[in-house]
Design a protein that fits this description.
Blueprint lengths: L4 H13 L51 H8 L18 H7 L8 H16 L12 H5 L7 H11 L11
Pfam family, one: DUF3035
Protein name: DUF3035 domain-containing protein
Organism: Parasedimentitalea maritima
Length: 171
């Protein structure tokens, strides 16, 4: 008994489609295991220049080998890590910026409320997601209406008289 060529091609296409990877665009958490991005390795140990002038131990406090991502980012962007204060207060130089950005009020739990709203939005947008025959990009599907078309915006700005940088040809 010979298998028709169309059945063989269809089976091969289905098998190859299952090998695709969505990567970071998958909206579901892949596992219940630990999050590897929450682990911060310690800085390498270094020998002090003077053993008699060691700092006093701080039980429960920070060590010299502890990572400080905020200070590292400030230094990498050309800032001064000494200007950061441990108390979390706003520096005087940023007071006007914070006042202007919070003039309409500040929601204290904005991250939690945005996460809840986003989960409800994705659930509402993907009601028929279980009925797809082929593997689709759920991220693009859920946020298609909110996506900005850069070529259309560039065209609108150029027609309005604004000078815009050169861009590759649009689609």
């Amino acid at each position: 008994m010979r298998i028709p060529l169309s059945v063989f091609i269809l089976t091969t296409a289905v098998v190859l489609a299952g090998c695709g990877s969505k990567g970071l665009r998958s909206l579901q958490q892949p596992s219940t295991g630990p999050d590897e991005f929450l682990v911060m390795p310690a800085k390498p140990l270094t020998e002090p220049e003077n053993y008699s002038a060691l700092p006093a131990p701080t039980p429960g406090g920070a060590n010299l080998t502890d990572q400080n991502p905020l200070a590292d980012a400030v230094v990498a962007l050309g800032g001064n890590a000494a200007s950061l204060n441990a108390g979390g207060a706003i520096p005087n130089s940023d007071g006007a910026l914070v006042t202007a950005s919070s003039r309409y009020g500040v929601e204290p739990n904005v991250r939690a409320s945005l996460a809840t709203e986003d989960a409800a939005f994705r659930k509402r947008e993907n009601r028929t997601a279980r009925f797809k025959l082929f593997n689709v990009d759920r991220y693009e599907e859920a946020y298609r209406k909110e996506a900005i078309n850069p070529f259309r915006i560039n065209h609108l700005f150029r027609n309005s008289g604004f000078s815009t940088p050169s861009a590759p040809p649009g689609q």
